[in-house]
Design goal:
Largest sheet: 2 strands, antiparallel
Helix content: over 70%
Shape: elongated
Order of helices and strands: HHEE
Radius of gyration: 20 Å
Number of strands: 2
Distance between the termini: 18 Å
Number of helices: 2
């Protein structure tokens, strides 16, 4: 029976690692989108196309809010909270 519990912990760590990898990939994609928006904003400003600046700033703000939500609220779940706000299962203690 001890072997099963150890195997369960390994699977749980694998899932947690997958969640962290997915978060990192999403953050990288959002950062690339923000860099593209920044380049488009600078290009529009230098070419005096001020009408497109507001939608680009709004898009950048939305990317920032999505990034903030990924960093702040998307956490792996299990049974018990830690001091950092994460939740930890009883088997990880």
């Amino acid at each position: 029976m001890g072997h099963r519990q150890k195997g369960f912990g390994v699977r749980q760590r694998d899932r947690s690692a997958a969640v962290w990898q997915a978060r990192l990939i999403m953050l990288v994609m959002i950062n690339i989108a923000q860099l593209w928006i920044l380049a488009a904003t600078v290009d529009a400003a230098l070419s005096h196309h001020y009408s497109v600046l507001v939608p680009l700033v709004v898009a950048s703000g939305i990317c920032f809010l999505i990034t903030l939500s990924i960093i702040r609220w998307w956490r792996p779940t299990s049974n018990q909270r830690t001091s950092t706000g994460y939740v930890r299962s009883a088997k990880e203690r």
